[in-house]
Amino acid sequence: MEKIVIKGGQPLRGEVQVSGAKNSALPLLFATLLADGVSEISNVPALRDINTAVRLLRELGAEVDVSGDRCVINGSKIRSIEAPYDLVKTMRASVLVLGPLLARFGHARVSLPGGCAIGARPINLHLKGLEALGATITLDHGYVEATADKLRGAKISFDLPTVGGTENLLMAAALAEGETVLENAAREPEIVQLADALNSMGAMIEGAGTAIIKIQGVDKLEPLKCSVIPDRIEAGTFMIAAVITSGDVLVHGAVSADQEALISKLIEVGATITPEADGLRVVGPKKMQPVDIRTSVFPGFPTDMQAQFMALMTRAEGTSRISETVFENRFMHVCELQRMGADIQIDGHSAIIRGTKQMTGAPVMATDLRASASLIIAGLAAENTTEVSRIYHLDRGYEKIEKKLAALGAKIWREEE
Ligand code: EPZ
Description:
Blueprint: E1 2-7, E2 13-17, H1 22-31, E3 38-42, H2 48-59, E4 63-67, E5 70-74, E6 82-83, H3 85-88, H4 98-105, E7 107-111, H5 124-132, E8 136-140, E9 143-147, E10 155-157, H6 163-173, E11 179-183, H7 189-200, E12 204-206, E13 212-216, E14 225-227, H8 232-244, E15 248-252, H9 260-269, E16 272-276, E17 279-283, E18 293-294, H10 306-313, E19 319-323, H11 332-339, E20 343-347, E21 350-354, E22 363-365, H12 369-381, E23 385-389, H13 401-406, E24 411-416
Parallel strand pairs: 2-15, 3-14, 6-7, 10-11, 18-19, 22-23
Antiparallel strand pairs: 1-23, 1-24, 3-5, 4-5, 7-9, 8-9, 11-13, 12-13, 15-17, 16-17, 19-21, 20-21
Helix pairs in contact: 1-2, 1-7, 4-6, 5-6, 6-7, 8-10, 8-12, 10-12, 11-12
The structure holds ligand EPZ.
Ligand EPZ binds near residues 93 and 163.
């Protein structure tokens, strides 16, 4: 197993390019199952989760060729409609094959993903939506079996704005008969890119990015050709790294419209953030102010930035409160940060962080993707050496993060445990 070693205390300086968005590339890859023909997606990040998605597409019979950041997918020879447990348990986003397979073939058999480190993460809202479109859903031996002669448009109101649920229903409704209306839909930029991509394939979708999305079903979709939008969570992670090290970094690919909640909080902390070239220039202050955050769905403060922001608050001059409202168990990074000297108390869904002068490096363990990023960020600013183990979590969602940080002046490298 590999670990990442960091000698903290270097202010980050220079420019960094974020990669394509993992949480956009995944639904786009599965959307190619809707078309009989050859699709091409560029700016695909080199991540473990992308490799898993490619394995699943091949398992279903698609021919997939990956060269650099370009994926070419031939969806004309799909021979299976089953997403097996070993792949779905590796990456729960595999459930996004449900909508496309059901819409194109009238049948899908997908393993229930099971829980993960950050929460139970059920897919009840996905299934309820697909049933509203006329699918028959049965659960057997840990698998969801979905069948439908023909999906018919319906009005679907989500109990909560589920990202994956909105994506599955967008893809299913694109080939349903008649109009589908999604109410209380998720509004993330990745939803907007998926809707744009489906429209470029011939779908008729309007309202993506708002809570009400209307889809007029069509008979057939053409193959997809698109480029993945930049990863706003990777961008936000580098922005926080610049702030915690009192650095000065131009983050190429950071889009202010996608980061407004994070930007306003980092400015409260004392950072200066200015749009420059094709990104955002972030200058970190010498003294960081404590700032409370409460995660929520887009455009609120992203839950995927909560762990990274908590690492930053360990250096603030005062007490801050972080409330996690999206997932029920997304504080796994707290006890690892405490090993580095952080003063954090958990109170239900909130954490109270009392900033300290400087944390001390320590051997720590990654537990999930964004917790890993939080430990890297803490290590960048900590005294001495931090060693982060189980970094396979990190490699799920960050492409060569240690190389990008080293290019900004960080003393960081990867080595065998
Ligand atoms: C997506 O997960 C992202 N993953 C997550 O990013 C992100 O944290 C999350 O959206 C929220 O923004 C991908 O896009 C691949 P949800 P998803 O459905 O779709 C509950 C990362 O770090 N819920 O919006 O699974 C659920 O339990 C990952 O990159 C139901 O109850 O998120 C959770 O509490 C982590 N029933 C909340 O809604 C359902 O049917 C949000 O889930 C579906 C969801």
